Amino acid sequence: MSTSSGATTHPASGASFSTPSPMDPRRRNLIIGTCVAGGAAVAAAAWPFLDSWSPSERAKAAGAPVEADFGALGPGQRMIVEWRGKPVWIINRTKEMLADLAKIPPGNLVDPDSKQANQPPYATNATRSIKPGLFVVVGICTHLGCSPTDKFTAGDPTMPAGWEGGFFCPCHGSMFDLAGRVYKNMPAPDNLIVPPYRFASDTTVIIGEDTKGA
Ligand code: FES
Questions:
Q1: Which candidate, 134, 118, 33, 124, places its Cα nearest to that of 79?
Q2: Domain limits at 152?
């Protein structure tokens, strides 16, 4: 439910989420900055992350699977891999992040059990991943394709009360949890998309190739 102040109240928990109006000047500036900056907006995220691993030009052109080495990815960090022209995030979720994720009332989410096919079958679980700690997800908002911003910290003062960590899309205010599940009453209709992937080793993952090929 939305109020005149722009707050959205989740029917299940009563938690108030202040969703900024798209017409708000500060919000509009943010939108313009995001759209113009494009990938640069991703690089400017405040949360620490590693530089992108770049697949070969030939692999990118063919849309082939890409291999990423996440061995140096520290707890709570994110790296970005380009696959088929899309940014794929690999996030090393800590135990604390997973505990925060589990606190979110399912009634606050559009698709808490990931019943919609926005992930491969092997990632249809509470953490939407093969291994709970490692989250692999396409970093594109399911509303109109902007790049959500990391808001990993529970209680982030820039986010609504009761925030348990996740992602915020600056274009129209959609919010996602740390498994990429979208909250109710947001412009984005679906959870973020988990691509097909498999582990090639303890520290490498192949994006774009299913586990059945492992
Ligand atoms: S693109 Fe509209 S909320 Fe993300």
A1: 134
A2: 7-213
